[in-house]
Amino acid sequence: MNINLDVELVEQEEATKLVLSGEIDAYTAPILKESLLPLTQQEGAEIIVDLEKVNYMDSTGLGVFISALKSSKEYSSSLKLVHLQDRVHRLFKITSLDSIITIDTTVRGGN
C-alpha cells in the first residue's frame, strides 16, 4: 500500500488554496506542515485547505492544523478547511477543534 500525500497549491484572486489528497499521518504530516505554515505567515493572507481527497488523518495531522491556526492568528491571516470527508470531520469534532478552526460544514461522503 502506497501511503502518500499530494499537495497542490492553487493561487486564486482572493485566497491561496491548498488542495490535499491522500493520507495525513506521522509520515506525511511534515509535507503538509512544510506547505501550509509558510502560507499562514503572510500577513493578512487567506488560506483555504481543501481536504476532499483526504481519506485518513490521525492526531499528527491535527497537530499541523493547530500549528497553522496559531501561526495564522500571529500573522493576522485566515485559515479555512473545506470539503472534509465525514471520517476526517469527525476527528475535528471529537477533539472540539471544530470550534476553533473555521471548517466549511458541507461534509462530503465517505465513512
Automatic annotation (TrEMBL):
List, for all copies, the residue spans of the domain called STAS: 5-111
This protein's source sits in the domain of life called Bacteria
PROSITE patterns recorded: STAS
Q: Which segments cross the bilayer?
A: none
Q: Which GO terms describe its molecular function?
A: anti-sigma factor antagonist activity
Keywords for this protein? Phosphoprotein
Q: Which family does it belong to?
A: Belongs to the anti-sigma-factor antagonist family.
The UniProt function text for this chain reads: Positive regulator of sigma-B activity. Non-phosphorylated RsbV binds to RsbW, preventing its association with sigma-B. When phosphorylated, releases RsbW, which is then free to complex with and inactivate sigma-B.
Which protein are we looking at?
Answer: Anti-sigma factor antagonist
* Annotated source species: Pelagirhabdus alkalitolerans
